[in-house]
Amino acid sequence: MAGFNQSTNDGSGPSKETAHPPKLHTRPVTGMIVLVGGLFALLLGMGVSIAFGAKEIDLATVWQSIFSFDSSLTEHLVIMELRLPRVLGGVMVGASFAVAGAIMQGMTRNPLADSGLLGLNAGAAFMMALCFAFMPGMPFLFLIMYAFLGAALGAGIVFGIGSLARGGLTPVRLVLAGAAVSALLAALTDGISLYFQIGQDLAYFYAGGLSGTKWLHLKIMIPWALAAIVAALIMSRSLTLLSLGDEVASGLGQRTGVTKIVCSIIVLILAGSSVAVVGAVGFVGLIIPHLARYLVGVDYRWIIPCSAVLGGLLVVLSDLAARIINPPYEMPIGAIIAVLGVPFFLYLARRERREL
Questions:
Q1: What is the CATH architecture of 85-351?
Q2: Burial class, 280, CB count within 10 angstroms (exposed 0-12 / middle 13-18 / buried 19+)
Q3: DSSP character string of 316-348
Q4: Domain residue ranges of the chain, discontinuous segments joined by +
Q5: What is the pLDDT of residues 1-56, one digit of tens each?
Q6: CA angle, residues 8, 303, 220, in degrees to nearest 5
Q7: For residue 350, what are the contacts with CB-CB under 8 A and spacing of at least 6?
Q8: Nearest by Cα to 271 from 138, 137, 154, 158
Q9: I want to staple 15 with a disulfide (CB 3.0 to 4.6 A). Which of 3, 9, 23, 293 is the partner?
Q10: Helix pair 140-164, 256-278: axis angle to 10 deg
């Protein structure tokens, strides 16, 4: 897609491309339509998701419970204590995964980049398995911190292995390293789960789901996620230039090393906190940034906010579908999203192979 195969300076001296900021293919009008329409669809989806459940509740009651809460009414309690935190968790997780994927794709110029494909999710899940096994009853705040460390561990191993190959990192090579490392970490997680008999605790994180989301989780996650998304918006211009190539960004005065470090920290916060809440859900960060880029162009000042809105919408609708497909049982939202993500990944991988 546009933005991943831009020409760069050949090293012979300052080029015209680096003398002035390159003209980017953007669609600001479309971006505004996507943002407004996406927010409207997101609010509608949230309302429908809150209303639907074992006991269906009309939208008027949902509105009343949020803005005129009455603790004496059972329906209001169900909405405020169970359904609203679940839906808000879905919005934040979807936005976080999507923004993390957008940043990774822009930073590495790799259209296959996604926190689930590059070892971050598996690393976070592995670290959480260690916490369940050796430090049971750990407060959720510390669990998130260890999830950050696990995500960093997974990403570090993937990039390290991918860099060892002759010719350096390529999109397909990076994904292959990510698949191998993710499989290794998943196997270690399974071994810990069996040995310490914590499989029931980890099953939730394997499949991915929002049913266990509580206000406590959101109070800890939301400040981290919002701060990281705001930081991503602040870094969006630098990320746009970085997506054109290191030489172009350096020629325009960007400190590419600092930009990459800051963006990496943002990705670790977004992916780690999301895995701690919902589990190892993949493909959100792969699908949504490509959709946003297709709609609004290559400027990350539009890609990031649109990805956040569309990512939240995808997870909320996937969670709703997970409850509709086989009631009263729930499907894992990871499986729902994978139905869309796997064919999309195969399409991208085949296209990248043709371009090599």
A1: Orthogonal Bundle (1.10)
A2: buried
A3: HHHHHHHHHSSTTS---HHHHHHHHHHHHHHHH
A4: 85-351
A5: 445 544 444 444 444 444 455 566 678 899 999 999 999 999 999 999 999 877 88
A6: 120
A7: none
A8: 154
A9: 9
A10: 130
